[in-house]
Amino acid sequence: MNRPETDNRDLYAIADLAREFDISTRAIRFYESKGLLSPERVGGTRVFRRRDRARLILILRGKRLGFSLRDISDYLSLYDAHSQTAQVSLLISKVDERLDLLERQLGDLETTIGELRQIRKLAAERLGQESAQDQREPAE
Asked: Which site among 52, 61, 129, 140 is 20 to 30 Å from 123 CA-CA?
C-alpha cells in the first residue's frame, strides 16, 4: 500500500482513509456498520480519529490473513478493554487455528496437484501412443 505521511494527523475524512489504504469508502462504511469503526459525526460528515485509523489497519491485516470479521471484532474488543494478556492469548489461539487450517489446505492442495500431474502424464502418454499408432496405420 502506498501510504502518504498521515501518521501525525489527528483527524481523517473517509476519503482520506480510503485513498490511503486503497479501499472503497463503501468498505469503510461496512466496517462501521459492523461496529468495528466508530467515527464521530460533525454535521453529516464522518470524522475518523487516529484510533479509527489504527483499528482499520488491524481490520485490513486481519482480513488479509484470512480472519473472519467475528475474530477481528473479538480481538478489537480486547484491544479496547486494554487487556493485553487476554488480547495476546486470543491472538495466539486464533493464529494457531488459522495456521492449522492453512496447513491442512496446503496438504490438500499438494495431494490435488500430485493427482493432476499424474493424470496429465497418463493422458500425455496415451496421446503419444495414439499418435504413434496413427502414424503406423496405412492411409486409405
From this structure: 140
